[in-house]
Amino acid sequence: MKIGIDISQTAYPGSGVARYTHTLISFLLKYDSNNEYVLFFSSLRGDILDDLKKMINERQNVVLKRFYLPPTILNILWNNLHIAPIEWFIGKVDILITSDWLEPPSITAKKITTIHDLVIYKFPETSSPSIVKTQKRRLNWVKKESELIMCDSEATKKDVEKILKINSQKLKVIYPAVEVKKPSSEDLERVKKKYKLVHPFILTVGKLEPRKNIAKLVEAFQKTGINNTDLIIAGAKGWGDNDFKISDNVKFLGFVPDKDLYALYSLAEFFIYPSLYEGFGYPVVEAMSLSCPVAVSNNSSLAEITQDNGLLFNPNSVEDIAKSILQYHDNEELRDKMKERGLERAKKFSPEKFTEKLLEVINT
């Protein structure tokens, strides 16, 4: 069987969608030698990541189709006008797995896609108007044309059924794979020096945008009065008003590469994630995988992923966030307990489980 996949989102490292697409490709190519793959990649300035290039070049069952059309043009062609079928670009395929951003028409290919979340419907004010507009147009075509839709969590599946009115028989929950690399002692020391980490610290990770709720986290941290520990915020600048009241023990690192990020998880006293809404939440599983205790919002998929293997709080309450910070900060025994429980929970999101379920969907 010949399978086409749009991998263009990998041109934007640092986002959850890029991470998901990278993982999907990596493990399909690693574990599946029976099917043929045709990979569509289009970006005016972005390039394919080196490790993906290497993997593609090493395998006989993969063909890469590289284009230089910017996403703005493809958005007009595919989401707006819905013309220029994917076969014009990659040839005939049996199955097309589309991205989270563009929904091309197909002539004969069976279309499969992933809905990561429905933040544009549930919290439109936390996304830019252009993102809301693009996603709604894309989802209109998904609803009409996709034969199967993968959802990142049960929470997302319920949202899709309720908001988009899509029949549950078309929906399949497949938890994304999360794979991390345990840092060496040399990596830990290098990262400490690189980011000038001289105090114990609490870590949060994510692109700086309103939905990540960083302003309330900073306020809650400052409210605790903790002065012997830093709050470290790792994430690229997104959009919107990100002006926070900064103190000496609140530090923004900007975008952090994965190798450094794994060391930060391993060094942190604990990880905290105050997002208002997530379809999955990669950083939570990454932290658990590296024995970092987690405290997360009690909403969307975050409570589903964490269950009772971490602390849950109301992300709209500064007092509740502050309470969780103090619970962990003041109780080493609790942190040690949640390290063990989180590590066990993280095994549910392995690459093997993800690929097995994904291939079941493809081969059905």
- Count of DSSP E strands? 13
The poorly predicted ranges are none
Radius of gyration computed on alpha carbons: 21 Å
**CATH homologous superfamily of the largest domain - what is it?**
Glycogen Phosphorylase B
**Going across the major beta sheet, what is the strand order?**
3-2-1-4-5-6-7
Overall mean pLDDT score?
93
Structural features:
about 375 residues, alpha/beta, Rossmann fold, 2 domains, 7-stranded parallel β-sheet, 6-stranded parallel β-sheet, 15 helices
3D architecture notes:
The chain is α/β, with parallel strands linked by helices and 364 residues long. The chain has two domains: 2-173, 3-Layer(aba) Sandwich (Rossmann fold), CATH 3.40.50.2000; 185-349, Glycogen Phosphorylase B (Rossmann fold, 3-Layer(aba) Sandwich). Helix content is 43%, strand content 16%. The radius of gyration is 21 Å and the shape is globular.
Please write out the topology.
Layout: E1 2-6, H1 16-31, E2 36-42, H2 50-58, E3 62-67, H3 71-80, H4 87-90, E4 95-97, E5 110-115, H5 119-122, H6 129-145, E6 148-151, H7 154-164, E7 171-173, H8 185-194, E8 201-205, H9 214-224, E9 230-234, E10 250-254, H10 258-267, E11 270-273, H11 282-289, E12 294-297, H12 300-306, E13 311-313, H13 318-329, H14 332-346, H15 351-363
Parallel strand pairs: 1-2, 1-4, 2-3, 4-5, 5-6, 6-7, 8-9, 8-11, 9-10, 11-12, 12-13
Helix pairs in contact: 1-15, 3-6, 8-10, 9-13, 11-14
